[in-house]
Design brief:
The chain is α+β, with helices and mostly antiparallel strands. It is built from 6 helices and 12 strands. It has a 6-stranded mixed β-sheet with strand order 3-4-2-1-12-11. The chain has a 6-stranded mixed β-sheet with strand order 5-6-7-8-10-9. Strand 1, helix 1 and strand 2 form a beta-alpha-beta unit.
């Protein structure tokens, strides 16, 4: 059993102590971060972020355009790699990060991404990500900021290989993640391979300081690996 958190941390522009408190209270094995440091001294800044959260920096940063994977010491990391989406002139470069891991001998691959605000560009990025996921030879856990609600083209593209963790357990509630204060939109989620059993899923909206930690709410999934 592992606990996975997917969290857009708003470029670390908010209350860092609140962020550390929120993540620490969740006791995650894996944190998939969007909007982590990606520019000047990004390696050092991501290492400091991991330290603040009581975790280990695994992969991501500049090469994955701000998508980063952090883990607890329970997780063994075997291999990491990154994917960059084609750049549309005038828009932000975006990408994804991958980490092949094991817990107790059970293999899995963690993936993190943050898709475009533009609909056509977002659909193309999701298609490339879905292709990359389909090529992975192990169960996949994807944490992403889709920048669109469920039912959009990105969700549909990735749904060909993965299922929404929330639906796997028929979790109640709206699952809205943005904005953190009075959330109205569900744009962040965890998706998993069908072979992974989802035992619990929630949006952590009720934690002390969560409205100060970021402009997004963290998504938490408890998973049993095959």
């Amino acid at each position: 059993m592992i606990r996975v958190v997917s969290y857009n941390v708003h470029g670390l522009r908010d209350d860092r102590s609140a962020l550390a408190s929120v993540v620490g209270s969740l006791e995650p094995d894996v944190v998939i971060v969007q909007e982590a440091p990606r520019r000047f001294r990004w390696r050092t800044r991501n290492a400091h972020l991991a330290h603040d959260l009581g975790l280990v920096y695994v992969a991501g940063g500049a090469g994955s355009l701000g998508n980063v994977i952090l883990t607890s010491l329970r997780v063994t990391v075997v291999e990491t790699w990154e994917l960059r989406y084609p750049l549309t002139p005038g828009r932000h470069m975006r990408g994804a990060v991958f980490a092949r891991c094991t817990v107790g001998g059970a293999p899995f691959v963690v993936v993190g991404s943050h898709l475009s605000l533009d609909g056509s560009e977002r659909a193309a990025q999701a298609g490339l990500l879905a292709k990359a996921v389909a090529e992975v030879d192990a169960p996949v856990i994807l944490g992403a900021d889709f920048n669109e609600p469920p039912g959009g083209s990105a969700w549909q593209a990735l749904g060909a290989e993965l299922r929404e963790a929330a639906h796997a357990v028929r979790a109640g509630g709206s699952w809205a993640t943005f904005p953190a204060v009075a959330p109205r939109q569900r744009i962040d989620a965890v998706l998993v391979s069908p072979r992974i059993e989802v035992t619990r899923y929630r949006v952590a909206a009720d934690l002390d300081g969560v409205g100060r930690a970021s402009d997004h709410l963290p998504v938490v999934a408890e998973l049993a690996l095959p």
